[in-house]
Amino acid sequence: MTPFSRRVGILGAGQLGRMLAIAGYPLGHKFGFYGLNHDEPAAMLGHMHVQSDEAHSLSQLIDFADVITYESENTSVELVEKISQTTPVYPSATSLYYSQHRGREKSLFTELNIPCAPYTLVSDLTELHQAVDMVGLPAILKTSTEGYDGKGQFVITQTDQIEQAWSSIGEREAILEGFVEFKRELSIIAVRNADNQQVYYPLVENQHHDGILRLTIAPARQISPAIQQQAEDYMQALLNKMDHVGVLTLELFETETGLVVNEMAPRVHNSGHWTMDGAQTSQFENHIRAITNLPLGATTPRQSFAAMVNIIGQHGDIKTVLNMPNAFLHLYDKAERPGRKLGHINVVANTQAELQTRLDQLKAWMP
Ligand code: AMP
After folding, report:
1. Phi first, then psi: what are they for 81, rounded to 5°?
2. How does pLDDT run across 295-330, given as a tens digit for each residue?
3. Were both Cys, which of 45, 219, 232, 294 would link to 289 (CB 3.0–4.6 Å)?
């Protein structure tokens, strides 16, 4: 045990928990997980407490841990509040409360003068009709909670689709959001520790297909210092307001008139996986440093250009990646299944042309 070794408990044992542990061991920490079963990606990386024996296994994780974090914004706020009475949980229940509900998240953005799409909360079909009148079309209907990778969403372009939209999202509490005509989708990752040290990664550019992230380019191309600063200012307002400790991710749209915020996540994020090989300190290490109150590491890119390509559904010919210079393979030990995130490939380059060459060689992994 070093003086700053901590036992870190993670609620969840998927690939994010796996990569958090891999980043945390060099700091001398130990890990435990509260997950679904012993086949999950993180299961072999620390003490695994399986949920089937709910009360017992969770209390074992709490007994083990000096500090607890979580993998998903869908973690129960009540559970985090309860654990916090005995063991610190970061990010706190406050960050979770805002991030897991689109309505609360949007009202927070509005309160902090952070621009987002016009929206209205809807809880039944009548309200949805009224919301369409207010917000206008096209618009996106999104469930208030538990949407991810584009699930629980319906794009309404004509009024005769309103009923179909309502039934398609399961007739649940939702928000109707104005459609944003964006040029690109961007995201930014910030980290704050309990001493209020704050660091920001550069804005990155994200390309999705069927609601799933497929490619991140880091840093995003042609971003002015003023736009980077704008994104950092939004982040700083959110970090301070929520007294956030750990990584916070903000997804944004770049429009003709500036940045429009989409949503935030109180956790390490797929659009930050490039940092494992492309930045001085990865988002995973910085999250662990933040929640164990260590100084945060530099977020500067190691090389001029980096990209991350997700491996979705099938692994493909991974030997191509292993034979490629400046390419780094990260697999999550998951079985192949359509639409499933199985791993990712990071590439770094000194020139834009070199980055493009690498991406051309990785076409098989892109839609
Ligand atoms: P979300 O789950 O909110 O991240 O939405 C998934 C994807 O839907 C985003 O990555 C965008 O491509 C698209 N999208 C979400 N909200 C909007 C919007 N208000 N206007 C246009 N596209 C959107």
Report:
1. -60, -40
2. 999 999 999 999 999 999 999 999 999 999 999 999
3. 294
The domain defined by 7-89 folds into Rossmann fold (3.40.50)
Cβ–ligand 1 contact at 180 (below 6 Å):
yes
Q: What is the pLDDT of residues 64-88, one digit of tens each?
A: 999 999 999 999 999 999 999 999 9
Q: Give the C-alpha separation, 202 to 300, whole Å.
A: 8
Indicate which residue's Cα is closest to atom 2 of ligand 1: 150
Question: Is 47 close to ligand 1, i.e. is its CB under 6 Å away?
Answer: no
Indicate whether residue 211 lines ligand 1 (CB < 6 A). Answer: yes
CATH class held by domain 118-178: alpha beta
pLDDT at 149: 63
> Is the CB–ligand 1 distance for residue 263 below 6 Å?
yes
Mutational test site, ligand 1, from 137, 179, 262, max ligand atoms within 8 Å of CB: 262
The domain segmentation of the chain, as residue ranges, is 7-89, 118-178, 184-365
CATH architecture of 184-365: 2-Layer Sandwich (3.30)
Residue written as token pair 């063991």: 87
**What's the 19 CA to ligand 1 centre distance in angstroms?**
26
Q: Is the CB of 184 under 6 A from ligand 1?
A: no
Q: State the DSSP code for 89.
A: B
- How confident is the model over 94-151, as pLDDT tens digits? 999 999 999 999 999 999 999 999 999 999 999 999 999 999 999 999 999 987 666 7
Q: Do domains 7-89 and 184-365 have the same CATH topology?
A: no
- Report residue 105 as tokens: 């998240």
